[in-house]
Amino acid sequence: MQNLNIAEAGFGYIFKCIGLYYEGNIYFVLYLVSLVFLCFIDRKRSKRMREIFIPQFILMAITVYNPVFPVILNSFFDVNKEYYRFLWMSPVIVCIAAAAAVAVTEYAGDPEGGTADKRKRGLRMAVAVVFMLCLLVAGGSFLYKGGYIVSPTVYHMPTEIPEVSRIIHEDADEEYPRAMFEYDYNMLIRQYDASILLACDREAYLEAMAGNVSYDTAMEDGNYIHRLLAVVALGIKIPEDRFRSALENTHTEYVVVSTAGGLVPYLKGAGLTVAGETANHTVMHYDPEEKEDFELPDYSEVWRLTPQWYDFLLWLT
Amino acid sequence: MAMAAAATGLIALNFILYFLFGSVLTASGKREMSLTRTVFAGLFFYYLLFTLCCIPVMLRWRPLHVLKYIWLAVLIIFSAVGAFRARRRAIKAVRKAFGFAASHKTEFIVIAVITIVFAATVLINYQFTLDASYYVGSATTAIQTDTINMYDPFTGDWLDHYEMRYFFATFPMNDAVMCSLLGLHPLLWCKITMAGTAIIMTVMVLYMLGRSLFDTDTIKITLFILFSVVANFFMITIYTTSAFLTTRTYEGKCLLANVVLPGILYIYTCLLRDNKEMRNWLLLMLVALGAPVLSSSANMLVPAMIGVTIIPLTLLKKDLTVIPRSLVCMIPGITLTVIYILYVKNIVVFYTYPR
Is residue A308 part of a domain? Predict the structure, then answer.
């Protein structure tokens, strides 16, 4: 929860946190209803269900759901972003599913659980369907509401990622070239190919996407990362020499942009050349005045000075 | 396609390893062996042993391939010991499990279909998730550089100290080691093998909870699993346990939210039946020791879950010995949380070079 701050929200934090956690779905209400049903209405097993679910619910209510608790916890260490994970401890889905299972089998039709009577079986099916609809409506959302996207490759990556990686390595002189990508590719490329270094890390990119990078910040002296982000992530066309200085100072040799994004002419104007193209992306190359000398540190001297019993394994590959 | 099939097949390897590792611990005494409990215990024992191998190697700045061979030796030794210890009991347990399944054929077929459809739906789907750049990136980076946590997975730059948040949570390094041993790309391992493993493990824990709630009423258990799976597609915001299960399935946090925490609830249901039973307490301790390896969030969540779930046993059973036992199980998480606070305060730092 990046935008929620315990110091600012104070005792209201927990309510905002719960609100964001469930974000419009009423599963928490369903959980409470299920709890009451299992522990107080379903007579067959209510004692055991009460012992399982009620003490935990009470303790959760006086700790995790207590408005004072996050404030106290936050005074020891920063839990702003992660406090919502305490809400995982409530067995919301377990309770709802258990209540639904009991309701379908015992409160629809034959209480003995027999299946011979077709009418009763039909009634059970109807109750089960009603519960399914209830889960759907209570959710107010569906995992695949935006459409179900079949993974385009076995790597769970866009098909162009391996192509972009190949183009960069075929063009580069060094084993570890540094590159700058648009948002999604910047997050994906190193999962596929860790020999491509990135000019921008995830946090810097998220800052840019959150609106903390602008023309003005990009023009500040020495703010090279903002210059790269301004151009590649936000499409802000800063003076080309400023962009070039950012490439030079961050040792960025490749810039990968979508061809349809309209940045290619700007990048050509800044002195980059086309290294290759895929169906939707253009890989642009910049020839820096000073090449980055990236090498993996050699630890052999450290190993020699700190011998371990398993060092014979060093010589295997 | 062959690679995807191989990655899918490796889900079975994971379960065999968890079972064999679990057998080392559970195949003793006179009690009957439970297949699901053995796999559940094995998961935590597996990761606990891995981190015990990983941290000393990492602290001595040795490369990933050293850890790979050490882990290979551990896999062979513990699998052999597990197989030897379980040789008779496992056959008996498998026979009993199959016998039970055969007498409730329809329900078990439905459970199998639910699990396969659920897993296939999640595994075939393409999801763009930000955190993969760290978790999958860590494994890819470790293999590329032949190092352990020494490079920033986001950029590939060298780090001068180990990031403490991930220092004890060596789950991604296990991904790297297994990929290295099997010659598989981390994307295939994380997004197919580990994602499939997490989903099946989640259904298995639901089954264990179902057995605990409804005994041998397999119709109720089947419906319980069905409704749980369906609910996971609808309780969707980026924060819920369901979101981790359906979109960030390759992360240790997915196992924490959907296996560890419901697993502690399951152990509580067992303790409710018999709070003197030592093997339940040992299982809880194993979870407390193994969970921080999956995700550093477990350092806080596991003690908290033990606090709100197990401590009430004291009143229900009128037995004060529950408190010290629970507190002992909270120690691993609390200790790691304190170490993390010391790191944040700049008191404890582990550097990636000798100083």
Answer: no
With CA atoms as reference, report the closest residue to A112 among B223, B221, B219: B219
Task: Identify whether residues A189 and A129 lie together within a single domain.
Answer: no
Nearest CA of chain B to the CA of A13: how many Å?
A: 16
Contact A310 B66 (CB under 8 A): yes
For A93, the domain range is 6-139
**Does residue A195 share a domain with residue A124?**
no
A195 contacts B191? CB cut-off 8 A: no
**pLDDT (tens digit per residue) in B151-169:** 999 999 999 999 999 999 9
Q: At B178, list the tokens.
A: 């297994």
pLDDT digits (tens, 9 = 90+) for B295-310: 999 999 999 999 999 9
Closest residue by Cα to residue A312 from B75, B74, B69: B69
Residues 6 or more apart whose Cβ sits within 8 Å of residue B286:
B25, B41, B44, B45, B48
Query: What residues in A contact B262, CB-CB < 8 Å?
Result: 91, 94
Positions of E strands within chain A: 178-181, 197-198, 254-258, 273-277, 281-285
Instruction: Report yes or no: B42 and B23 within 8 Å, Cβ to Cβ.
Output: yes
What angle (nearest 5°) sits at the alpha carbon of residue B349, between those of residues B347 and B355?
115
Q: Which of residues 92-131 of B touch A (CB under 8 A)?
A: 124-128, 130
Is A153 part of any domain?
no
Non-local CB neighbours of A137 within 8 Å, separated by 6+ positions: none
Of B136, B220, B232, the CB nearest to A105: B220
Pick B157's closest partner by Cβ from A51, A141, A197.
Answer: A197
Q: Is B4 on the interface with A (CB under 8 A)?
A: yes
Which residues of chain B have a CB within 8 Å of the CB of A87?
239
Q: Does B273 touch chain A (CB under 8 A)?
A: no
A135 contacts B227? CB cut-off 8 A? yes
Q: Is residue A179 assigned to a domain?
A: yes
Between CA A192 and CA B128 the distance in angstroms is 14
Contact A48 B340 (CB under 8 A): no
Q: Is B237 in Cβ contact with A21 (below 8 Å)?
A: yes
For A263-301, write each residue's pLDDT tens digit.
Answer: 999 999 999 999 999 999 999 999 998 888 888 989 999
Q: Could you tell me the pTM of the whole model?
A: 0.94
Query: A7: how many CB neighbours lie within 10 A of its CB?
Result: 11
**Domain end call among A139, A168, A186:** A139
State the total domains in chain A: 2
User: Do A190 and A168 contact (CB within 8 A), yes or no?
Assistant: no
Q: What is the DSSP string of B284-333?
A: HHHHHHHHHHH-TTHHHHHHHHHHHHTTTHHHHHT-TTHHHHHHHHHHHH
- Domain boundaries in chain B? 2-344
* Chain B residues in contact with A200 (beta carbon < 8 A): 155
